[in-house]
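Structure tokens please, single chain.
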Amino acid sequence: MRRWIAQFAAAGLCAFALSSAGAQTLKLTWVGSGAMKLRGYYMPNPLALGPDKPVGLSVEPAGLLQPLYGTLQFGGKSYAVLVDAPTAGPDRIWIDANRDGNLLNDPPVKWESHTFSAQGKSWKVYEGSVVLNLGSESRPQPATVAFYIFGAGYPGEAQVKDKLFFYSDYAWTGTATLHGKAYHVLISDESCSGSFKAKDSGGRPAVQFLIDRNGNGRFDAPSEVYDASKPFNIGGTSWRLAMAKPGGAGMRIVKSAIAVAEVPMAPNLTAGARILPFTAATLDGATVHFPQDYRGKLVLLDFWATWCGPCRGEIPNVVKAYDQYHGRGFDVLGVSLDQKDQAAQVKQFTAQNSMPWPQVYDGGFWKARIPVMYGINAIPQAYLVDGSTGRIIAEGDALRGAGFPALVGKALAKSGSTR
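Here you go.
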């Protein structure tokens, strides 16, 4: 991860320094694509789809089978979206990127499918992206909006039906010097509205200010990820981010009139470090002591939620690994970030999706006790742990995808040879 910091520095990133005198306009570099990998997570936003055509849409493809329409609000402009989602056959998508009401003269949308299966069923997840302009024709500011949709047959179809999920793959990035120390920073448009308005939107921040305080090349929550609508403390001084023009141009950092405490650095939860121990109640009424209850085993600590589309997409991989290796010492402990009074729903969902392992759930959503302890600000997030030593074997993206069962098999073979 340090490599991309060096690459940005070589590209001529502008730095900004904060004097004790107060405000200073930030000089940042625009990253129009690839920002999701830089920040290490993405925050999906749902776009409702329906049968009604957006106002002004006049030309669309022929041969549509089951068209669904939506309107994406981005950068103060409206973009018509069309998804053809037949029960049999692939989903297709069009976006009126030039906003002329004609879906046939826009660049093709990047679009690909991935097949998943569980419980004898198969379904596809379609994902893609489109580049929209946050600037003007004379001074373009290309911004990549990524999106995905679940195809027919998905086990949780009722929760995601007629919804296109989208997130920002763009950001502002630069280097901040606070109290004489340089930090790599990133400003993320979580709401994917293109406005970079730092306001709280329904319990989650619309804009995040990320600061690599420990210099490890990544942004570790919660100590390095801040809600840009609230003051934050770095080096004993309270600051706040002041937004200016749409699109994020002209941002400033100023001293805050409201003093807040400095957030302690997040624990090191990278591969090789020790996992954080905890005791919690599971949904079946048992008490789990983690990781000591898993001595002699390899255990996946899995942070997820029934409402999380990407989490659902990973379930078949985890189920496959569990079915294949549970008898050889592999186990799973789930930690649900579902909302209040959803215990019955979580139980039903895990039963329907062949997830027999215990689940920790307290209804706290993003403020649930264990996720807060671990600094979880995006899911899915998982840690593969040696239950005997408490050491983290792998975490994050390394545990995602169809290759996860094979990774578990290799880790079991290795741990078995060293114990």
